Amino acid sequence: MNWHASVLTLFPEMFPGPLGHSLAGKALRESRWALDAIDIRGFATDRHRSVDDTPCGGGAGMVLRPDVVDAAVGAALAAGPDRPAVVLTPRGTPLDQSTVRRLAEGAGVVVLCGRFEGIDQRVIEARNLQEISIGDYVLSGGEPAAMVLLDACVRLLPGVMGAADSAVEESFSGGLLEYPHYTRPAEWNGRAVPPVLLSGHHAEIARWRRAEAERITRERRPDLWARLHPNAAEAGAMDGRPAAA
Ligand code: ADE
């Protein structure tokens, strides 16, 4: 069986969307993974086909009903029971590459896209839904977040990634952000390619790239840098600057 993603959404027509193009789309056509988008509204039971209701305790917005969500998750799991179920929500655990890797190594994933103000907590607990966020900002729904999650997983599936992408993956796995890239022309609008990259000295090029990756990581992501060098603050020497007094 290939890797199977089921997306539970009120907007199934949004899928595959961007996932039908580029690397993930090619892999989908090659059956390296399978995708079904399931309409949550199809599991409504009343004559108005309602999927949400007002929040207990009052307040703005609507909450997805537990019975409807439970039926939708149950239907998805019937088609592939050995898959973790996740829900995309800004209050979830931040998505990172290790979570992506773990999901890509499994049988697939059931992805519930949040809408409205939220989802009834009881079905999150009853179905053991893992809450995942793609970042500290609020989207109007979980669908774009589901696409981000699936894209990140699919590129890791066997036979999907090219050699160039694999190298990027390895470099990120080292915990550093990528070094800058250049191509021809050697000079463009008065800006030169760093001479070392044209020198042919492979060891020096590797050293320059490593130093640039470290500089960029330090400047942009002190959190990642601190994880790599937990004692750097006391040692003060990792970036060549003296420690603060
Ligand atoms: N739904 C709305 N905002 C989101 C976010 N930041 N991550 C995941 N799902 C979301």
Automatic annotation (TrEMBL):
S-adenosyl-L-methionine binds at residues 114, 134-139. Its EC number is 2.1.1.228. Signal peptide: none annotated. InterPro entries: Alpha/beta_knot_MTases, tRNA_m1G_MeTrfase_C_sf, tRNA_m1G_MeTrfase_TrmD, tRNA_m1G_MTases_N, tRNA_MeTrfase_TRMD/TRM10. One of its GO terms (molecular function) is tRNA (guanine(37)-N1)-methyltransferase activity. The keyword Phosphoprotein does not apply. It holds the Pfam family tRNA_m1G_MT. It catalyses: guanosine(37) in tRNA + S-adenosyl-L-methionine = N(1)-methylguanosine(37) in tRNA + S-adenosyl-L-homocysteine + H(+). It is an enzyme of class 2 (transferase). GO terms for cellular component: cytosol. Residues 6-226 form the tRNA methyltransferase TRMD/TRM10-type domain. Keywords: Cytoplasm, Methyltransferase, S-adenosyl-L-methionine, Transferase, tRNA processing. It is found in: Cytoplasm. One of its GO terms (biological process) is tRNA N1-guanine methylation. Gene3D superfamilies: 3.40.1280.10, tRNA(m1g37)methyltransferase, domain 2. The keyword Transferase applies. Belongs to the RNA methyltransferase TrmD family. Specifically methylates guanosine-37 in various tRNAs. Homodimer. PANTHER family: TRNA (GUANINE-N(1)-)-METHYLTRANSFERASE (PTHR46417). This is tRNA (guanine-N(1)-)-methyltransferase. The gene is trmD.
